[in-house]
Design goal:
Layout: H1 4-21, E1 25-29, E2 32-37, E3 42-46, H2 53-66, E4 70-76, H3 82-86, E5 89-91, E6 95-101, E7 111-115, H4 124-129, E8 154-161, E9 166-174, E10 180-187, H5 196-209, E11 221-226, H6 231-236, E12 240-250
Parallel strand pairs: 3-4, 10-11
Antiparallel strand pairs: 1-2, 2-3, 4-12, 5-12, 6-11, 6-12, 7-8, 8-9, 9-10
Protein name: Ribosomal protein S18 acetylase RimI-like enzyme
Length: about 250
């Protein structure tokens, strides 16, 4: 059974993979685990059990040395956050954890979903982050130990209209129990509420679990962290609410 703790682990593994894929690093400071993601100059603190000054202060100092422009913390809703608040962290939009098997959409989106990292339109940080889908193919280049969870298979899916216009993308990372953790799902504003997001979820599930059975339903559980604006979308696609967590930002 998927738990909030398990969902937190999948998000941790994603942020660690994104750090390594973009030339960053992972480090710890007195019980605090950090991921430095240089493409967006972002430092992320990952689910500390009880973050205190002894761990927060040196982590922030390292972030300053690296040139971080944004510092975030993902926190279990039941974990003490007084140390983070004292350091200047405040709550951003509350996250909710969702998990479940996909349900078939009422209508199919008339476009194409493909797995792969060939996205000529991508530039800047978006282009650098595409490398996250290549880590598992070349683990020796990462410097991580064999079997590190950040090296689990990751795929990116793009959604294009029949005319070839790029209208959406999403990533999925394979979790320890075979589940797929969904990250970075985005659809262009002019194409939302048309089934693009659902098509991306189904395309990732089919491509990673059952690529040859194009007409068969892929029986796999998906996990996602949702913002208040995306929670309804995940629920409409068959994913149940597991619980809620905290996303904090250093002001």
């Amino acid at each position: 059974m998927t738990t909030i703790s398990f969902a937190q682990e999948t998000l941790t593994q994603w942020h660690e993979a994104m750090a390594i894929a973009t030339g960053g690093k992972l480090f710890t400071t007195h019980g605090c685990s950090w991921a430095w993601q240089p493409a967006r100059r972002r430092l992320v603190l990952l689910f500390p059990r009880h973050a205190q000054e002894a761990g927060i202060r040196p982590g922030l100092a390292e972030g300053t040395r690296l040139g971080a422009r944004r510092v975030e913390a993902w926190v279990n809703s039941g974990a003490p956050a007084d140390g983070l608040q004292s350091a200047g962290f405040t709550d951003a939009a509350q996250i909710s954890w969702h998990a479940g098997e996909l349900v078939s959409p009422a209508e199919l989106w008339p476009g194409r979903v493909r797995l792969g990292t060939e996205v000529p339109e991508a530039s800047g940080a978006d282009a650098q982050e595409l490398n996250v889908a290549n880590l598992w193919r070349d683990p020796a280049s990462t410097g991580l130990s064999a079997g590190h969870p950040a090296l689990r298979r990751i795929e990116q899916a793009t959604a294009r209209t029949l005319d070839g216009d790029l209208v959406g993308r999403a990533f999925a990372q394979q979790a320890l129990g075979g589940q797929l953790a969904i990250h970075g799902l985005a659809v262009g504003a002019a194409h939302r509420r048309q089934g693009v997001g659902s098509a991306l979820l189904h395309g990732l599930a089919r491509g990673m679990v059952n690529p040859l059975g194009l007409e068969e339903k892929s029986q796999v559980e998906l996990i996602a962290s949702a913002s208040p604006t995306s929670a309804q979308f995940f629920e409409a696609n068959g994913m149940r609410l597991l619980g809620r967590g905290r996303h904090m930002v250093l002001r």
